[in-house]
Amino acid sequence: MSLDLDKRQRAMLREMGVRLWQPPPVAASPDAPFAMNSVAVSPRLPGAEARFDAERQRPPTAPAPALRPPPTAPAPAPRAPAAPVSGLKPRPAGIELMAWPALQAAVAGCRACALCSSRKSTVFGVGPAASDKAPSVDWLIVGEAPGEMEDIAGEPFVGQAGKLLDNMLLAMRLQRGNDDAARPGIAKNIFITNVLKCRPPANRNPDPAEVAQCAPYLKRQVELLQPKIILALGKFAAQSLLQDSLPEVQKIPLGKLRGQVHSYLGVPVVVSYHPAYLLRSLGDKAKAWDDLCLAQAQLAG
Ligand code: URA
Fold first, then answer.
1. Ligand 1 atom at minimal distance to the Cα of residue 155
2. Tell me: domain 95-300, CATH 3.40.470.10, correct?
3. What residues does each domain of the chain span?
4. Residues 69-95 pLDDT 10s
């Protein structure tokens, strides 16, 4: 079916939240560089392979439905407000001096907040194999908190948002450290973790008390990893990393934290959108790509 709509009708549908599908542009553009199942690379990354998602590979002459559902993921159920956190207990002593294996063990056994009673696993993070020392990485990616899938797997970003993150990373010629797929020219010098190491139940936001209890783990991870760049994904990561250097960071919208290089423990920090948000707001993918390019440029010095 094809709808021949005039400008006014289109504006009306837009008002109603109905999005009209437009044929994709023939030429490659960095507007939507990350697809769920494929990768596109901005021309700003020299030498990077350009790949495009299925939508972009559609021949321009192919008949296209005039109206089709937006290619966005279904909006998640509204998050329950964070319940007041009770049952805080002391963290393991001496986190600030721990070596990597001790830090891993401390997180695995942590009972410093009530999340320990509902979690299936702790999620320390993932990177290249390491034994007694932290893995050597250039990149540290910090997300918010494990979700349901991560809680089961014990690994960050393994759900839909994680697939998008993996594609974003591939576009940067990076892949998670424990990914065995051989991809020539793709580096694994990246560690991925979250502000919270345990899943908040019912998909609720992290509570400030939980963030505070978990913060020393992230701090020690940064001290031991010594990454060259940190990418903070979403407001909880940004706020948690920047609260000491940016007064009232909680009041600053995420969009205003983007586009500049901040600092955490002397490590440059670039703020970007959370991949789960990007799944619902495809229009902001191009901005996320700009953020990755900024981080890449910072890394390249
Ligand atoms: N969202 C996050 O912020 N972290 C995860 O590990 C998964 C989803």
1. 6
2. yes
3. 95-300
4. 445 555 666 665 555 566 899 999 999
